[in-house]
Fold this sequence. Notes:
Four copies of one chain form a homotetramer. By secondary structure, chain A is an alpha+beta fold. Chain A has one domain: Chorismate synthase, AroC fold. Chain A is 27% helix and 23% strand. Chain A has eight helices and 18 strands. In chain A, the strands form six sheets. A five-stranded antiparallel sheet of chain A has the order 1-2-3-7-4, covered by helices on one side. A five-stranded antiparallel sheet of chain A has the order 9-8-10-16-11. Chains in contact: A-B, A-C, A-D, B-C, B-D, C-D. At the A-B interface, strand 1, helix 2, helix 6, strand 11 and helix 7 of A face strand 1, helix 2, helix 6, strand 11 and helix 7 of B.
Amino acid sequence: MSSEFGKNLRVSVFGESHGTGIGVVVNGFPAGEAVDPEQLQRFLARRAPGQSRLTTARKEADIPEFLSGIRDNVLTGSPFAAVIRNTNQRSGDYKGFEDTPRPSHADYTAAVKWQGAADMRGGGHFSGRLTAPLCVAGGIALQILARKGVYVGAHLSNVGGIRDDKFPLYPTSELFNKLTSSNFPVLNAQAGAAMQTAIQNAASEGDSVGAAIECAVIGLPAGLGDPMFDGVESLLASALFGIPGVKGVSFGSGFDCVSMRGSAHNDPFMIKDGRVRTETNNSGGIQGGITNGMPLILQVGMKPTASIASMQKTVSLSRMEETEIEIHGRHDPCIAIRAVPVVEAVTALVLLDLLIGG
Amino acid sequence: MSSEFGKNLRVSVFGESHGTGIGVVVNGFPAGEAVDPEQLQRFLARRAPGQSRLTTARKEADIPEFLSGIRDNVLTGSPFAAVIRNTNQRSGDYKGFEDTPRPSHADYTAAVKWQGAADMRGGGHFSGRLTAPLCVAGGIALQILARKGVYVGAHLSNVGGIRDDKFPLYPTSELFNKLTSSNFPVLNAQAGAAMQTAIQNAASEGDSVGAAIECAVIGLPAGLGDPMFDGVESLLASALFGIPGVKGVSFGSGFDCVSMRGSAHNDPFMIKDGRVRTETNNSGGIQGGITNGMPLILQVGMKPTASIASMQKTVSLSRMEETEIEIHGRHDPCIAIRAVPVVEAVTALVLLDLLIGG
Amino acid sequence: MSSEFGKNLRVSVFGESHGTGIGVVVNGFPAGEAVDPEQLQRFLARRAPGQSRLTTARKEADIPEFLSGIRDNVLTGSPFAAVIRNTNQRSGDYKGFEDTPRPSHADYTAAVKWQGAADMRGGGHFSGRLTAPLCVAGGIALQILARKGVYVGAHLSNVGGIRDDKFPLYPTSELFNKLTSSNFPVLNAQAGAAMQTAIQNAASEGDSVGAAIECAVIGLPAGLGDPMFDGVESLLASALFGIPGVKGVSFGSGFDCVSMRGSAHNDPFMIKDGRVRTETNNSGGIQGGITNGMPLILQVGMKPTASIASMQKTVSLSRMEETEIEIHGRHDPCIAIRAVPVVEAVTALVLLDLLIGG
Amino acid sequence: MSSEFGKNLRVSVFGESHGTGIGVVVNGFPAGEAVDPEQLQRFLARRAPGQSRLTTARKEADIPEFLSGIRDNVLTGSPFAAVIRNTNQRSGDYKGFEDTPRPSHADYTAAVKWQGAADMRGGGHFSGRLTAPLCVAGGIALQILARKGVYVGAHLSNVGGIRDDKFPLYPTSELFNKLTSSNFPVLNAQAGAAMQTAIQNAASEGDSVGAAIECAVIGLPAGLGDPMFDGVESLLASALFGIPGVKGVSFGSGFDCVSMRGSAHNDPFMIKDGRVRTETNNSGGIQGGITNGMPLILQVGMKPTASIASMQKTVSLSRMEETEIEIHGRHDPCIAIRAVPVVEAVTALVLLDLLIGG
């Protein structure tokens, strides 16, 4: 198994939810780039639990310790490693699922694959908690990208069927900053209010809702990526599906293209400010796997949180008979809220990899 | 650049639409497995153009010559190589796009990336024609998988907004055979008729339509794949986005999960015929990146054919001014029809890779 | 950059000599395998400094902390991570080499590559100290291999021109245990005494000596490895050259084959105890990149320690003029002594990777 | 299995000695680079058999057909593919070894690994013939490198114990040209004459001799490569051990370092013509895995040809009893002669990969 991705920038995530620590090793961060630890901590805070009524009340002290690859807040060129200690486990909340797997969690598949050896407390290596080290790496990547004039932003584009506006044709870093400073990042405040009500309603019924995230990247040069299997879509999708709960990844028009005709879907070329641009951006900034200089646009579909309060059907693996379970503990009613910075982090890491490989 | 994918089964596709030949090299095909060349040819015929009114009238003699890795129709264990000669090029149809890139094709990005060196006649290495060698490799993978009791099937699940039925909870190889023998593979004949009308209407207007493909795999053991970035979704999505025209890839409930609640989305475990199963399959047969023994279900969204008959806006790269082009030649009004076997092929290659890796 | 190796078993080493910590992440350790921490600590002690007059007097508390991938001394299947804190740095010993690179160290190349950003105190990421985490991973691999009947052993086969005996045609695990329990592992005690004298003589003159290590692996099945670039020699050599100070890697007859005739070099096949064996083993247990069931034999040539006491010529990079330096601090007069377990560790990791990939 | 190497330049070799064809696919050749086919053919001729009394009399029409990735002798940027047809097989010469494996060939290991499915006629995929496509790729890499001011040269440094001179501290491209134009490339003509006599003597007795090849690369910038497992030595060794018959690979002082003291082995830095240089080059141009701007120096040890005329002991695998075989056919008495350009080719490909990756 390999919890790694990347080519010139290799990201390796380790840890189990209730083990000693979780962390990340990155090979290939460019030497000499500064890291602003406070900016990084603010980024991590967006992913951390306990920020609002809509996210779990768990408190995690997600403060990474840097082990190597950085000195005096400057990347040294050798492998970067950071660890986050696991301090606030309440394993009692998670006992008892090794025999009775939680529906739509990885308990059953881990049991089949690792024959009982896995440390699945709190979801083990499959836990959403593993996105914290991913955000450490991605938060650094975002800082490096910004220095190159490349900015990444994301918002909740659909929660439980309630749609936010789409990104405009040319999103700006100001717009991204506005999203970043909100703890419920949407473009349309009314839609956002409706979404929050939907989440609260689900939460009050012990239920959860799914959501979609739209992510944009501006400032990318044309020419990144390669045809076929090393296309930008392949690289991004491969990494994004590594985020727990992702059920779909699409680019530009995404699955909407299915209902479109070519005459409407094709992006006519035009000249704007002396540069080649397209009038529309159904291509999502990628043509033939290669960036075309337009904003890169992608969508991620995230399932509703699998941990819900109601009694659920499951089986006892030891007795091979049907039974029921009830999942206690504190859970996000909509995992996508905290996944917004994770999508930004993963997207940033993939694009920095491409920029390094030049 | 790297037109390759896979780990234990490495697939490398080469060729340009109007060059000498296109082909594929596969490292890792298991030694001793037989290849039925007639069955392979029938599979290739499903992708080949010129089969019906709905596909392009071009005739391509897609008969692969095996160069290595096979003797007397048995795989030898050393690298498999096959080449298909390009014989029926009508380059005249494609002249003139190096300076005036076709909208939503790779002409512009190739020009930026390769600075005029690319052989972009007929789309060059970006051409849908490159899916022919992919189908040679995938067609062999399908034969090997079938011998292991693993079957792959696919249908047009949505054409231009007209929806086919979804696969039943437990698709069968008989159902797949029925789809395979049709040159317009759908589950619901009425929907299929409406789709064909929609395609013909678009074609008669010199236009094209987008479509979605649903693909299922049955017979997979539980336990394939790994958490995070080597999850089954990551591996499949990475390869599937290598198919020209794919805008989205999703699994199980896909983007529909966005509008669902956890109580409806979770797949309750049950015992069926002495095996652990789930009552629903929103997980698409994958939990935590690992197969759970249920049918694997995925969706691919394909954009409408970019080559349409109407006059389109573009730019002259040399003069940096706006202009128009008209694309002649023969083109599929709906590329997804011929992409159905390509999705099957790529899916089969990724899964055989996982099965080999154990 | 990528301080990683392996395919199914991915080993990633991080850290700088005088940074916060050094460590290793391993993806792919088989779930359910036990780790004996005391046996591991004994293995690490063989690499640790300060064991005898012939190794540096530095004391390093090389006690790894396990962060993930292991619970109750059993591997869980998810990424294994371990960290060793750097506690005993005496950076003063290493000051001043950023401008005046030490001959035959990596100071100059790191300065060119990372433009001054590198943390090169104590050799930084290039330090022999980085072999400690490698031995943590390798020590675990050795325990897993032993349970599969595969044993790895090594000895100092040549120190400063004084040759030890070669391994017999069929080394045994008993012989390996004898070598392991010695802190100067040789087969011929007389040769060993002469080697130690040579090392002490060099040390007393502020100088150092080179050495060769012969390593053997028994119990391997025939059929591991692949032709050409994934041959066992390629995989082992690639990893072994990652050990600081290695100048050459060879297999079986090694460079002696240059002076031999085919009639003497060919290994005749024979039947022994019902198994196919060879009468001699110039092939080193590998033919066509694939193991043949005979003991695997390899040699590693290690240069004399670059840190010597005498005044040496160098240049000032800032002033671009010639100057001299004197290296203080405590250094091994023969790095190969402590490298013996490192060679075993790396060899074990590569072979476990192959066995897992099967 | 994977007959591939490289990261940014991916080389994939396919084919079996007596199959339909052998060939190579290269991903990553830079677009726009010209290929001189006559110069390439001259390079291939150096590897081809039948040039002198010292090489086999077999005639192979090693004229590659370019399938893709090149148009009008300019690389297009998409995957390069070339095939060489197998036309002159005399399979009769090779019959009968599937049951009675030839000593020190891959017959036995292939039989174990592929259970009889392998096409081992003429050595199958393990044949030295597979170095022809490798030379097609490498010959192109050499042309590209030369345009960047990087030159690769090699000579027979030791044949059967007779030593040639070593390369001077600063070899020149003129020296390389002189070696290239000889069909017995040595620096010292007298040594060369003695070597040829030794080879003829062995040949007349139906025997063969081993040899070493020294290879140098000039014009490389400092800073290529990475610490540890992606060091230049690791990358080169991994690829060079893919050449059939290689038993050892070393750099700079190589295994001679074993008998040296640090005071003699260390390379003092100096300023020469305004650049940082070293007075000696025991480091072989590489320190800490990274090039230091001095000539890169490596050695390859090649075993004596395994195919010799005398009766040899082997076993019958079907009857599991000892027997004898006699190998007919035409064989090089010293495979290293024709391996000289192969070593150059592989070295060039690895270094071009590093230069592309930046």
